[in-house]
Design brief:
The chain has 120 residues and is mostly helical. Helix content is 70%, strand content 0%. The longest helix has 31 residues.
Length: 120
């Protein structure tokens, strides 16, 4: 089994649902603009079957194709912030834990040094 297929089989259910919703929302955006699959696919530079896979929420559709679809509806600007470090809560929490541990270690070292000076 190719790596990609394995990765797609391991998609968290909430992530798969989000991709399906994105595809559905893109289909709605296309329909609200009264664009046919053929016209929209041509504007995106993809085949109609690829566009249909995108709109069906197929997680194997490339991110470049998703980005182009978002560009067509003027939503591609959101991409720049999706994984921005300042929004990475997990990494922020790790940084805080590391800072707290460093502070504790320094306080401990300082206390030990004071005790040593007091004894000696």
């Amino acid at each position: 089994m190719p790596k990609t297929a394995r990765a797609l089989l391991q998609l968290p259910p909430a992530t798969a649902a989000a991709i399906e919703k994105l595809g559905s929302d893109l289909a709605v955006a296309r329909l609200r603009r009264k664009e046919s699959l053929k016209t929209w696919a041509k504007r995106m530079g993809v085949s109609v079957p690829t566009l249909q896979r995108l709109e069906a929420g197929d997680p194997a559709v490339g991110i470049g194709i998703v980005a182009t679809a978002l560009w067509l509806i003027q939503r591609d600007g959101e991409l720049r912030n999706l994984a921005a470090p300042e929004h990475d809560q997990g990494a922020i929490e790790m940084d805080v834990r590391a800072a707290v541990e460093l502070g504790r270690a320094r306080a401990q070292a300082s206390a030990e040094a004071r005790m040593k000076r007091a004894k000696g």
